[in-house]
Every structure is written in structure tokens, then in C-alpha cells.
Amino acid sequence: MDLAPILLFASSIAIGATAFYVVQLVMPLWDRLAVRYVAEVRPMLDALSLGSDRMPELMRWWGIAMAAVFVLFSIGLGMWPVAFAAVYLVYVAPKLYLHLMIHRRSKLLRDQLVGTVTALANATRAGLSLAQGIENVAQETPEPLATELHRIVRDYRGGRPLSEALIQARDRLKLDGFTLFTSALLVSLERGGRITDALERISRSLQENQRLERKLEADTESGRKVVVMLAAFPAVFLGLFYFLNPEGTALLFTTILGQVVLVFVIVIVYAAVRWANRILSLDV
Q: Cβ contacts of residue 177 below 8 Å, gap of 6+?
């Protein structure tokens, strides 16, 4: 009787059971490490209502992706130096993506706030109180700013003073435009005065700030495009050079020295892109 199929089946079950047991042991530790990894940006995700409910699941897939990339490059392709560089790129990808999401969300909130303040000024001019005006404007405001306005209204209806609800929203969002908006409202609520006049002045200030920020973004847009082109140039150059000298280009992938050179180029390009983005970033 041929026992080879039975032994193969039994070994496959044993390997699968072992892998399952190892995963069950490692997963809780991995979850704790993943929480620490995103701890820097998670408060901002929660503040901007960028739901993080699926974060543990996504971070597990991130760990699987790192393991798969390492196995692919190290064992599958035999490119050990490149494997470590590829794993590092996968390692930093989630945090870069989260920062990009936060930046886009903050920018969208900034742009929506200008029209919302104008609408709120019109609502108070029509005779509505500030709380009623916020509730009325929240019905017509698009997301994501509508969520923040509804949260303020919900806190106010729950018995919290309107000033405290505004302060909580200001401390949660930490956006310059929203800070200016809430600060002016708080001064008007504490010291009296016409809310409508204050809102009109805030609206003009926010419009001017938005204009300046958009002008600065437009001025640096060409620089960002240049950074993208320069980052993609080594890969394009390598592809073109492959058609001219396939044997010589293949040495970059088949020899240790070539792989080290490839990793060196990847490191230089990555560092240059990070440096250029830091220079072009605008904290206005």
C-alpha cells in the first residue's frame, strides 16, 4: 500500500494546524503593535470623523501584506536586499495614507466652512438664535462639516451650554478656520454684541484665508508635479534601458551587487520625495 498520499495529507493538516495555532498566538500581539503604530494619527481620525472601526482588520491585512511581500522577494524572486526595502515601503504606507486622508479631510472642512458661516450669518439676520441657526444650517451643509454641526446641536440639546459644545468641537478638530470661527462666537456670547456682525466679519476673514491658502497651493503645485516626475524617472529610465541592454539591466536583479545598487536608488528616491514634500508642505 502506497503511504505517500496519506503522509502528504497528514503533513498538510499538521502544517495548517500549526500555522493556525501560531497565528492565534501572534495576532493579539500584532494588534497591540498595530495600535501603537497608528496611535499618532488615530485621535485626528476620530476628531475628523474618519471612522476607524475597521482599523484592526485593515492593520491585520497590512501585516499579511508585509509578510507576503517579504516571502515574494526573498524566497520567490531570491532578491533578499530588495525584500527588506519593499517591506519597509509597505510598513510606512499606512501612515502616509492616513496623513493624506487627514489632509484632504481638513482641506474639505476648510472650504465648506466659508459658505457655512455665510449661511449662518444670513440665518441669524433672519431672526434665528445662534443655536437655531446652527441647526438650520446643518441641514443644508454637505459632509463632513454637517456631522460636526449636528454634533454641536446634539450636545446643546443634551443640556450642555452652547459655548462648551463649541469649545469641544474646536479642541477636537484643531483647524485654524474653525478655531477662528468658534473664538469669535465665544467672545460674542460672553461679552454680548451682534452675532450677525461677528459672523459677517468671520466670513470675510475665512474667505481671505481660503484665497491665500489656495494661492499658495497653486504656487507649489508645479513643484509637486516635478517631484512626482523625478520620483518616477528612475523606474522609467530602467524600463527604457532594458530594451537597449537586457543582459546588463538583468544584472540589477540577479546579482547581489546589482540588488544593493537597486536598494540604494530606492532609498535615495524615497528620502528625496519625503524631503521635497516637507519643503513644499504649507502650514498656513
A: 109, 110, 113, 114, 206, 209, 210
8 A C-beta contact, residue 16 and residue 22: no
| 86-124 burial: b if 16+ Cβ within 10 Å, else e | bbbebeeebeeebeeebeebbeebbebbbbbbbbbbbbb
Three-state DSSP at 279 gives: helix
What secondary structure letter does DSSP report for 73? Answer: I
Asked whether the predicted pLDDT for residue 284 surpasses 50, the reply is no
Alpha helices in 174-194 (DSSP H): 176-191
pLDDT at 45 over 70: no
**Assigned fold of 107-213:** Receptor-associated Protein (1.20.81)
Give the other-Cβ count within 10 Å of 169's Cβ. 20
Per-residue pLDDT tens over the stretch 101-139: 778 888 888 888 888 888 888 888 888 778 888 888 888
Average pLDDT (273-280) is 83
Distance CA 175, CA 26 (A): 39
Q: Name residue, grid cell 452675532.
A: 195
